[in-house]
């Protein structure tokens, strides 16, 4: 099974966090469906040329977050738990991680908090037109 996941060791984001975000995003978008089997730890590690312990950590974190379930001897599967609530939470987690990265980047290049808020409001106004004049709040 070809892997739908990728990692960028030069992104500055730890590989295990990249994978957690990608799995959550795939679940939220329906790319991975409830009951679908994930690659084995060994197979995903080989596909991505990363340490199997890293993949194991990813799967443990995802299991703790209720995104997947692992059955010894059978493998790891996307949880079949009604989907909508978990998928919404997974989407929120992905968005929160992206926002956190954007804020960290803005701070690292010297953008003041008030200016970052103004930039965020402009982005909201651009992507959510008509949502109560977000730019001027």
* The CATH topology of the largest domain: Arc Repressor Mutant, subunit A
- Spans of at least 5 consecutive residues whose pLDDT stays below 50 are none
Helix content: 40-55%
How do the SSEs run, as a string of H and E?
HHHEEHH
* CATH architecture term of the largest domain: Orthogonal Bundle
| Span between termini | 48 Å
Q: Specify the biggest β-sheet.
A: 2 strands, antiparallel
For the biggest β-sheet, the strand order reads: 1-2
The best one-word shape is globular
What Rg is obtained from the alpha carbons, in whole angstroms?
A: 18 Å
What's the number of domains?
2
Question: In CATH's first tier, which class of the largest domain applies?
Answer: Mainly Alpha
Give the integer mean of the pLDDT values.
86
Alpha-beta content class: mainly alpha
Supply the CATH superfamily name of the largest domain.
Winged helix-like DNA-binding domain superfamily/Winged helix DNA-binding domain
Describe the structure.
The radius of gyration is 18 Å and the shape is globular. The chain has two domains: 68 residues, Arc Repressor Mutant, subunit A (Orthogonal Bundle), CATH 1.10.10.10; 52 residues, no CATH class. It contains five helices and two strands, in the order αααββαα. It has 137 residues and is mainly α. The model has no long low-confidence stretch (mean pLDDT 86). Strand 1 and strand 2 form a beta hairpin. A two-stranded antiparallel ribbon has the order 1-2. It is 55% helix and 6% strand. 18% of the residues are buried. Helix 2 packs across helix 3.
């Amino acid at each position: 099974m070809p892997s739908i996941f990728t990692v960028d060791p030069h992104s500055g984001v730890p590989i295990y966090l990249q994978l957690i975000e990608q799995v959550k995003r795939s679940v939220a978008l329906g790319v991975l469906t409830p009951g679908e089997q994930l690659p084995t730890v060994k197979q995903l590690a080989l596909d991505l040329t990363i340490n199997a312990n890293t993949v194991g950590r990813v799967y443990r974190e995802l299991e703790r977050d209720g995104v997947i379930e692992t059955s010894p001897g059978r493998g790891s599967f996307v949880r079949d738990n009604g989907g909508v609530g978990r998928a919404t939470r997974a989407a929120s987690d992905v968005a929160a991680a992206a926002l956190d990265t954007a804020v960290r980047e803005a701070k690292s290049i010297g953008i003041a908090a008030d200016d970052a808020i103004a930039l965020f409001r402009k982005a909201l106004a651009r992507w959510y037109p008509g949502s109560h004049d977000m730019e001027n709040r």
